[in-house]
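#random but structural
TW: two for the price of one
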Amino acid sequence: MYCVLRSLLYGLAFFVVVGFTQACGGDSSTSPSSVSVTPGEVAGEWTVGSGTEETNCGSGVTTEPVSGTLQLDIGTNSDLEIDRSLVVGSRGCIIQFDLTGNIATARPLTCSERVPMFDIRRVTVIREWTMTFTDGSNMTRSSVTTTSISGDPGECVFTIRDARYNKG
């Protein structure tokens, strides 16, 4: 039962990180191009076109296609934000991004949420997350996040490199 619950919760964490993963950017080692976008131009729903995510929960690495959408909103205290809360409407895990030219970079974040349905706590750490916009309707995402569940000694690392998204 414990293994089934753990798989379910990490699977849920995978969906949350990748889908709305989970979810995700560009290569932060490249210099910014002459392209510049505004938060208003890139806010909205982005659908993944291609990309893979590696998941490492300590027992090996699995690779899956990135799926789902990202909802980018104009930030309250940042240029852009994504709400990754497990509990809908709780705003317990808001990823904030600073936009410079055409690159949005996530601010450091550790968020901890109680998941009442399973009576556990989920902790997510954003290690890195960048989105590089080629214009207002195309972008690439690269991200590394970790998730751990209370009572479980391990953590899962989710890595996405160069996933491509389209707006609309």
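TW: number two ↓
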Amino acid sequence: MMKATYFLCTLFLGLSFQVISAQTPRSAEDYNNRGLERRSRGDIEGAIQDFDKAIALNPNDAGFYYNRARAREASRDLNAAIDDYDKAIKKDSGFLPAYINRGEIRRRLGNGDCRLYRSYKDRRRCFKHKHFAC
């Protein structure tokens, strides 16, 4: 009986610590991971706030801009999403998913030949690198 009580207390404390640490991020990666979790649950605004914090802590990580762009795309803020894809590409010029998503948004917006041309350039870059999910 004593062992079972000890086991349950230890399990409860361990789970409590995981919940508390999940709620209080300590690094850019923690904020990014919580943002991904929030986005997957449909809390888009909360996800964007977490990605903002991750970027503030580490503005050189292209993945953080990419994740915020995906969240902004989900919230239908397409111009802000394009801006974030641009920043991700500026940080990492080989970040092909950012090119793909930016090109797709530009194709969907399609307001003007310039956007269509840039969308074509994004897709051409993907094919050049043999990334055929474009």
